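Our consortium's second objective concerns turning raw sequence data into structural hypotheses that experimental partners can test. To show how far this objective has progressed, the report includes one record in full. It was chosen at random from the queue rather than selected for favorable results. The single chain below, 1122 residues long, was entered without modification.
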Amino acid sequence: MAFVLVQHLDPDHASALADIVGASTAMPVTQAKTGDALVANHVFVIPPDAVMTLTKGVLTVARGPADAARRTSVNTFLVSLAEDQGENAVGIVLAGFGSDGALGVASIREHGGLTLAQAEFDHSPKPGMPQTAVAGGFIDRVLPVEQMPIALLEHWTYRTRTDADKGPDGLKQEVGHHLGVICAILDSRLGRNFSLYKTKTLMRRVQRRMAVLQCENVADYVEQLRQQPDEPEQLFREFLIRVTNFFRDPAAFDALARRIPEILKHDAGKETRIWVPGCATGEEAYTLAILFQEALSRADNPHRIQIFATDIDDQAIGIARTGCFPDSIADDIPVELLDRYFVRENGEYRVSKSIRDICLFSTHDLVKDPPFSRLSLISCRNLMIYFGPALQKRVVTLFHYGLRAGGTLFLGSSEAVTAHAGLFSAVDKKHRIFQRKPAPGHLPRLPVPAPVAEVGEVPQMPDSRTATQISRAVSRYSPAFVVMDRKQNIQQLSGQVGKYLAPSDGAMTMNLGILVHPQLRGPLRTALKQLAATQRPVVDEAISIEIAGHTESVTLAVELLKDEGGSDREELILVVFQDRGPARAAKPANQGGAAGEDLADAREHLQTLTALLETSNEALQSSNEEYQSVNEELQSTNEELETSKEELQSINEELTTLNSELNTRNDNLVELNNDLTNLIDSTSIATLFLDEKLRIRRFTPAVLDIFRVRDGDQGRPIIDIVSRLHEDGLSRDAAQVLRTLVPLQRQVGLATGERSFQMEIRPYRGANNVIGGVVITFVDITDRNRAEKARASLAAIIDSSEDAIIGHDLNGVVVSWNASAVKLFGYAEEEAVGHQLASMLRIENDEQEREILAKVRAGERVQHYETTYLRKDSSGLYVSQSVSPVRGSSGEIIGAARIVRDITTHQQGERERSLLLREFDQHVKNLLTTISSIISQTLKSGGTPTDFAGAIEGRIQALARAHDFLTEDGKVGARLDTILAAELALYESAADRITFAGPSAILAPKASLAVAMAIHELATNAAKHGALSAPEGLLSVTWRFSQDTDRHYLHIDWQEHGGPAVEQAPRRGVGTALIEQVLAREYDVKVERIFAPEGVRCVIELPCNDVAGHVMKHSEALDKKS
């Protein structure tokens, strides 16, 4: 066992409680903290200024409330202990001030745990906590502290031994078998019928009572219930649940408070009558009184409220009548209401008179007593949860009868009237507030008990030793006598006692205090009081009484009869009446001594009468409330009798109707049986019904394809039947479903592999939701599996295709979108599916798209249609697509499949090829024009054919070499230095006399041909007539770039030195004409020839801007293409 010590500690000081307790025990003692798990043989101590709770065996420590008056740390922990540990919880209330702990042990008792209280509390310096718990009836045993360890070990041993001998459910089953007998004993002894209460609740309470008594055998406990006079009463108290508090479930009471003005408005000018059945100790009734008083304080007109609060528990009713409650109720009641409706007295709270006067408390049994009537509100919270279904139905009908039209029913959070939709409608379903429907109210036929006179206990004859004592005493006094018990119930009397008895009107009784002569009642009470105080015989002489019109003197003697054998038999009291003859005249006044004694006796007698009067007054007040309640019940009974005539008159019609309904139901059952038989015979789904022991109950014909079963196999275990399934785990699966009640599904197949089934096992639920076995169905999914495999294969093909494959409906809404579509268009599948294809891809030609959809609807295919789409990133995409209609299972067209191929690259290649052809065409035309000009200029020079052929060949070769540079892979032009090197390579012998330099420059194709021809002509002239014709001649070629305002130029400077003398005005040759005419005409090039004495100089100026890319500027172009 684990131990937790919860004590009221000073919140402002550190606690040494753990050290103090640790010094007295060998067990570890620690101050609790959040997250500590309870450990056996370990003591946990609450910290100061804290409240502590337990959840799943783990402690949670939180800061306590600031208001010291609201600190109920013991209640808080014990309630959480009860909810977490149930019947394993033990609550011990030790001496302490206040009432903290009472609600906690009540919760432990309700959950089946053990409750103990300290026996020394009467002598404790801080009385309070144990008394409150004991007074509430929540304590099983009151023991001195030193006896509590033994009680705990006995309780633990009993629980362990019972579980070991009978198993966890063995004792429960045994109690269930004897529960009917136990209820019958309570009914016969106490007149309380619990047979319609919930069985599990009663069984749990009987088990708890047996644990308190350490009774291991139910039969022994039943015998003890029969033999022990007080045990039926103890068990009756055990069955009653007193766990209640003010404003329990505050949200629900707030909801009710919002409805109270409507109730008062309906009852304007009339009394508002409220009934609280099962009121326990009155907290719920007083809560309603407070709410109605608050509502009346805001109302304009005065209103009379009457609350009838009833319960089967007379002790609880007694507590409710006092209106006194422990200070722990401050946790449940708002401060302003506590101050307004309660008075602080002696450490307790007493309800104010204005609230107490509203409530009328009385005992009442819902099972057999008639209800109150003309009620505006019935508040029955957390009572019906303990009733069985039959009693719940009866009580709901009773409530409907008792409520006025439109009356309100207020239930607990776990209660409802959904099964009685014809009687009540929901006003606030969440907070369980319902309104009476205007259906006819019929009082359920509850047993109405016949009036029974109150009698004493069954007389028990004294044994022989007692008779001997009686004989001795009688011989001493020779009187008339009566033998009674301590409750004044007569056990034996003599024949001469009749003159001293004077029965009053009313029910027959055997109580001597009521039967004795009125003038002897006072002296008898006084004598009994002295006897109880001294335990010695008491004699009262010369008592004057009126008998038959004469005054006689009587001596009254009372004596305690003890059993000399020392048995536990109840003690008896002997009352003797001795006749002293006629009464003497009154004594003179001067007889002071006797008069003083008479005066003292009279004073004592008067005090006794005063106390008796006070007790009688309280009893009369209680009786008055009881009589008012009885009057209400009688009014209800009278109303019931008035309606009985009409009910009896309708019985014959009801019986006739019932007979007709039974015939109709019989026909329906026959028809239903036929339907079920035809369903089983005709269904293609293999269905197998097994009972709770997995034996065959019924099966459909389709089962024969799976199991080798015959019609005569009903009742055989399924494990004995040969199965054709590949894997035979059916029995295991069925047993699992029976155990967990969770349906099971899985695929199974025949051993041959030719068929597959979806097997589903569900619990078989009979009447009242009782599990009677399992139902197993086998749905043939062979075709579905094949279709799924084909679909998966097709889906794999679609996903692996490089073309985008899109499915859409006849309105163009996308329904499928493969991986290539994601890659092609940039939209994820979840972004595309469900959207219009036209709007998503921003199709500009809506008319063509509508024509495509129209052709699809007509069943036509659209093939290789080229168009332009936009991707998600708005980039263009040129595609070729084919669109085909998709047909459903019946052949109707349900959508379209669109295959889209990206042909953007192909289209770009086509455009580039076309451009290349146009450029090539232009290039050939230009080349032919150049050749034509060369031939024309060469012919003009005259000369021999040989000279003509040589000149033509050289010039054509120069063009060819330039063209070779231009047609190399990847080139868009020719470098100027490369052209010079190629043209001057023919003069290799003079290579050391030729230099050229300049920035990097790349010439476009057309310019390259022209410059190559010019260099060729200049070099040819230099070799024939210029610097290259002489051994000492030099040739220098340089070039540079220049810029004016808005144009760029390339300057090529050809400079010869050391050649033959140059004529100042040489004739214009073919080369010169070719250079000047071709370059100037084709490229707007300036050519300047200077014939200086030192050599020929030629400057060629090419405009870069005008040529528009034919001449590209130095290093930038060179770096990009080299």
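The partners drew two points from this record. The chain has a mean pLDDT of 80. The longest helix spans residues 592-682. Both points have been shared with the crystallography group to help prioritize constructs.
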